[in-house]
Amino acid sequence: MSVGIIKTNRWFVSTTIFALLIVAILLSVGIALANGQADISIGEVYQILFYKLSNGLYGSIAGLSEANVNIVWFVRAPRVLLSIFVGMGLAISGAVMQAVVQNPLADPYILGISSGASLGATFAILVGFGGSALVLQLGLSFGAFVGAGLATILVLVLSSIGGRMTSTKLVLSGTIVSALCSSVSNLIVYLASNAEGMKTVAFWSMGSLASASWNKLTFIVLIVSIVTVFFLSQYRILNTLLLGDEVASTLGVKLTFYRRLYMILAALLTSIIVANSGMIGFVGLIIPHIVRGVSGSDHRLLMPMTALTGALFLIWADVIARATLHGVELPIGIITAIIGAPIFIYIIVKRQYNFGG
Amino acid sequence: MKLTVDALNLTIGDQQILKDISVQTQEGQFVGLIGSNGSGKSTLLKAIYKTLKPDSGEIHLGDMNILKSTEKKVAQQVSVVSQFNELSFDLTVEQMVLLGRTPHKSLLEQDTQADFDLVEQALEKTGLIRYKKRSYLSLSGGEKQRVVLARAITQEPRFMILDEPTNHLDIRYQLDILETVKALNIGILAALHNLEQAANYCDIIYALKDGQVIGCGTPETLLTESLIEEIYGVKCSIYHHPITGGLGFHYYFEKE
């Protein structure tokens, strides 16, 4: 049994891995931007990127069709960028949840976020907050976000009943709240008997990055960046959380405070992502596992590697979602689950992998 | 460092576990706590290292008021060795021991060469140098317990609390742990089950029963046959070991 691959010459090996991940992400962005209905070469893609990113200072786009430039810059680029930040946020949120509840099977949705968001989205679509089509689109995100937030609060309150919050109580409360939210969602669906609306709810729940646009990106990029940077700085406390409640507190960590803070921030991160892109499963569960196999459980390496790997994973999941069927786009949640489930089975079956060891 | 526990009361649920307990240790003393299961030894220790909150009473270490200080301030002075726990995630022995530096670090402060030197010394003292890169979860119970001790030493404590640190260990590791702790030459408060070891290592022993102190003193004066019968409900004859001269205990049930 090994504790991650990186043991000797840590600095050199980990720097190399970070460099490789960043290069892989840059190359993948090019491939992802070139991929799609319109035939655009990777060379053209980088030409457009250089020109646009330097605000026209370097390179030129003379000789390229304006349509291609617009497709790359206004249609595909926001979407690829969204996939990077959604992947990063879900992976980071998963790694934090796993440390906080000291359970390697935790994922970003453990606090009932998924079912809460589904309930909120179902309510928004089938009952609605009233108003036009524009409000409907916003209402879906708003409903999902509020639902996720309320579910999280309910889980935190439930698990604090009767004194100290424990991991077991958290997981059980999450299960209860999920069951409750699903049944209310089902009730709404049953009573509404609105076929079109049900379809919208179903598609939303499978996840999609299709709604990406430059305007909507700012907010999610900002939130994911801030929360991710914050969690990267918390490696010391995250490490002590792995040792269990009592040991963490004898090492001087204010356990209750940090546990609550981390859960609320991770839940906020996940809720915003879910409200934006629907349910994208398995990313937050498997990415930290895969990374632990390389970095070990030390969060100083684990967190940044998880962020980059999550981004890389979701870029490719979205490429596959767009490329699998000609002319039709598959929901990305289906892709991540189809890739993720076998990987997870492999991780469990391969016995010498002992959750970070 | 002197530890003073003054008139401590502690209730868990509706049961009063500690009743007006007072304990005092002097500079550099190895002080033992003995008592049957459920007598309140662990609860008292937990109150001192701030995992349980007492209803009333005061705890001072040197001039620090423990109940009013932050976890971090306390952890800079006091380290705790209780029974090792299993983890869901694995770390290397070195990473585990390095975590002992946590209370001395501010956010984002890097680990320095001095920190790694302390880790090295602690691994040396506990005989774990060869295990530095090993996975914690792959170790045996005795080895895990020594890792926990090494972490506590790396914390550079001025006082150490031990909660039945030798449980489930074979004789070699039991003695290893107690010898290492004794050699630290700092104040120690330890809950112990084995009376021979308590008599051997402790300067002063406190005897607990039903959450109260029923006696304290040096091993020779405190440990009498009647006290042991009162605490554990067994008959006991105490003798001086013919070779070491230390206290020996023979336990038996009285035949009717």
Structure notes:
Chain A is mainly α and 357 residues long. Chain A has one domain (10-349): Orthogonal Bundle (ABC transporter involved in vitamin B12 uptake, BtuC). In chain A, 74% of the residues lie in helices and 0% in strands. Chain A has helices spanning 10-34, 42-53, 66-100, 113-127, 133-160, 167-192, 195-206, 214-232, 235-241, 245-250, 255-277, 283-295, 299-323, 332-349. In chain A, α12 (283-295) crosses α14. Chain A is globular and about 70 Å long. Chain B has helices at 41-48, 71-77, 93-98, 113-125, 141-154, 171-183, 195-201, 219-222, 225-232; strands at 3-12, 15-25, 30-34, 56-61, 64-65, 78-81, 159-163, 187-191, 204-209, 212-217, 235-240, 247-252. Chain B has a six-stranded mixed sheet, sandwiched between helices. In chain B, strands 2-1-4-5 form a four-stranded antiparallel sheet, with helices on one face. Chain B has a two-stranded antiparallel sheet with strand order 11-12. In chain B, α5 (141-154) packs parallel to α6 (171-183). The longest helix of chain B has 14 residues, at 141-154. Chain B starts with a strand and ends with a strand. The A-B interface holds A 1-3, 7-8, 98-99, 102-104, 233-234, 236, 239-240, 242-244, 246-247, 249-254, 292, 296-298, 354-357 and B 49-51, 70-76, 78-80, 82, 85, 87-92, 95-96, 99-100, 102-103, 105, 107-108, 133-138, 155.
Short overview:
The complex is a heterodimer of chains A (357) and B (256). Chain A is mainly α.
How do the strands and helices of this protein lay out in sequence?
The complex is a heterodimer of chains A (357) and B (256).
Chain A: H1 10-34, H2 42-53, H3 66-100, H4 113-127, H5 133-160, H6 167-192, H7 195-206, H8 214-232, H9 235-241, H10 245-250, H11 255-277, H12 283-295, H13 299-323, H14 332-349
Helix pairs in contact in A: 1-2, 1-3, 1-13, 3-8, 3-11, 3-12, 3-13, 4-5, 4-6, 4-7, 4-11, 5-6, 5-11, 8-11, 12-13, 12-14, 13-14
Chain B: E1 3-12, E2 15-25, E3 30-34, H1 41-48, E4 56-61, E5 64-65, H2 71-77, E6 78-81, H3 93-98, H4 113-125, H5 141-154, E7 159-163, H6 171-183, E8 187-191, H7 195-201, E9 204-209, E10 212-217, H8 219-222, H9 225-232, E11 235-240, E12 247-252
Parallel strand pairs in B: 3-8, 3-9, 6-7, 7-8
Antiparallel strand pairs in B: 1-2, 1-4, 4-5, 9-10, 11-12
Helix pairs in contact in B: 4-5, 5-6
